[in-house]
Amino acid sequence: MSREEIAKAIRRLPSRPAQLFNHLFFKTLFLFSAKKDALDVPGETKRVLILAPHIDDDIIGCGGTISRYINGGVRVHILYLTTGQRSRHPFLNEKQLKEERKREAYRVAELYGLKDLYFLDNIDGNLCLDHQNVEKVLDLVEQIQPDLVLVPFFLDYNRDHIETNRIFIEAARKAGWEMSLLAYQIQCPLSPGTINRVVDIDSSILIKQKALELYKSQVYGKRFFQTVLDLNRYQSSLARKKCRYVEVFLHLDIKKYAYLFKRMDERYDISKHLEGFGDNSSLPYSFLKGSRLRKEVKRFLCSWY
């Protein structure tokens, strides 16, 4: 059987056996992977800007890290690029869903003690690199002067996630590249070869879980949110220090990140080579899908480390 056939078979497993399989799968896989140093949070960082394609992506990818930054006295700013109004909901129309998702963002911000939220109000699915989006991001970067920017890693099946990278890279170029970068995972797990930083979120896993529970409009997201937390647990095997939950990142010079994205974007229609996970049963398939792209990215990263 091929890797994809095995992964598809796993997808048919019910929830608890799938969790057990994934625990063994990732434990075994990461046993042979180089252990990663913990990221110093907050370190010298004073101002953080997080670009989230959709309302909830920030918490999915780095909700525990956000809490650690805030507790360390760092000012965190979050920019949501789309409204999320086209998410499926059995009772709310697009206008109501747009309003409800924004209310959820503010509820999560209150939970965290966040005060700086910004909304570009693009319709999800229609996000694109255009002058208006770039200028708004550039204006925000110049206003905040962040030490660190977090963006979703560009190897993702969701086009809004990929377009967020196009917009940010162009804004960063115009801003003179004067900031550090962390790329976080959302629905396509980062492979060990693209992870070079982990953050211990044992102290903040509960607030991340509570935040995910506040996204009640995501009626189809309960199993997905649980899988996000499970993945944080599986990936803890990558950390040098002993911990139960981690969030993982690619930390890279912005110019190199931009070059890498450009090379991959020119050669591939990235989203068509990848698949996002929806729950534990689809997580291994999502991890294995797009192995060719992941290996190519790893070769570049290995030459730079």
Automatic annotation (TrEMBL):
It holds the Pfam family PIG-L. InterPro entries: GlcNAc_PI_deacetylase-related, LmbE-like_dom_sf. GO terms for molecular function: hydrolase activity, acting on carbon-nitrogen (but not peptide) bonds, in linear amides. One of its GO terms (biological process) is glycoside metabolic process. It comes from the Bacteria. This is PIG-L family deacetylase. It comes from Candidatus Hakubella thermalkaliphila.
